[in-house]
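FW: tagging you since you asked about this chain on Friday. Here's the raw sequence from the shared folder, copied in full. Didn't touch anything.
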Amino acid sequence: MYLQHYGFTKDPFHITPDPRFFYLSPSHKEAYASMIYGLKKRKGFIAVIGEVGLGKTTVVRSFLQQQSNQSHLKTIFLFNPNVSFLGLVRHLYKELEIEPPRTKKLKSDLTSELVKHLHQALIEEYSRGYILVLVIDEAQNMPVETLENLRMLSNLETTQDKLLQIFLVGQPELERKLNQPELRQLKQRLAIRCTLKPLNKRETVQYIEHRLKMAGLKEQTVFRRGALRRIYGYTKGNPRTINILCDNALVNGFGYGVSRIGPGIIREVNRDMLGAASRPGKLFWSAAIVAALLLVMVGLWYSPYGDSIKSGLLQLPFISSMRNSMATTPDASETVRAEERKKYRQAIQRTGPEGIPYLPEKTEYISGRRALNVPLTSNSSKLIGRGDAFGLSASLSWKRQTNSSQTRDKESQQPRPPLYRDSVLPAQLDPNEKVIQEELMDRIEVFRTLSPVRQKALVAMAKQTSIQGLMGFKRMLAALENRDFQEAAREMLHSRWARLAGPYATKLAAIMHSGQPHGQYGTEQNLTGSLSD
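HL: got it, structure written out here
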């Protein structure tokens, strides 16, 4: 329908194997020359092998058409190779118009009788100067038993020449089938073997120009240069695919009313040809890439560098803001958490001499009187010296405590440097650290009983190892529950995290051991030596 639009006299890209449009690429020329040699020398078997759409049938038909004009040639085509050997022999009888012999023998004897009678008929054709050619198209679909019995037809010969020339035309599966052990005798009889290859980029352009010229166009002005590049990129030099793509491009160009085909039309036609088949491929590769990235992330997460990666992720601005928004989102338990934080602040305001938060404990009774576990004050002196057995020791204890309190008052009046100066711990926690602190209070029971300094040390560890990673230090947490800070510091130093964190881990372990912001040890060797004592 587009012939007049482009100035064609015939359809340039029909997909039927028309010998008039046959284009001789280097591989086709090689196959053509091999068939000429094999036919003239009457070699018997000739195999033409190539992928789908490379022009196997076209090159064979073009060759036979040219040879039939030059010599007496009778060609028999077998388009349905899925037949038995007896069916193949009967097909030869039908094409040669030979009357089969009348016999009532069994099937095996009948086949032998038919082959014998065919031998006589072929000798008669040979004596008349005819060359008989049997072309088996799609030979890879022929049963192995039929292929094996083809040797019987190759035995039909004179003392000098083969009486029947057999062309096996098939895809690469034919080559693999011929490599089977049961067909090794047939493979040895293949005198000529041709293999067709796809066209390269230059040959693709020449192929299109050749077909346009045969269709009546004197000069190739239909396809732009960019369109020719896309045609080769999409078809990879397969002649049948080139014909289909170019034919559809000409139809689309006719519909758009353009006289030249650009790369956009070629891309559109290729997308229409692929249809929905291209989308699953893209989805597959996308899913494969995502799966590979997930595997890499999981591998890194559980690798020796997993703790560092987790701490780095927690410090990303996006994750930090998300955690802050989650922490500030009001929920049903916000009131309860506020009350718990208030109680905790009141508790840490009253600490013992070692910086351990005050926690109410069970009261004890001494001689029928209740004694609270709080430091004695002037009001509690009323409990001393009332005839109880503990009056003297209690008064002595009161004197020592009074002296020590007076000493502390004098020391407190002297100027001191800031407590957290030059310390790895901050004086005040930032919002992110406060979020971590609240999470640790909820998840780790012993965390509430620690001093603020040791709490900050655990918060600093959680920033590097994540909260989940910190909970993995089970031995350290068990030592903290037992108030064994020396063992807790030892577990910190002997962990994989300490090997990665280096001196920073040593400083945090010293702080955990001493409960002071600067620790009591200046070097890792001193701390290690103290812990090993």
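FW: Residues 347-400 have pLDDT under 50 and may be disordered.
HL: agreed, and The radius of gyration is 48 Å.
FW: great, closing this out.
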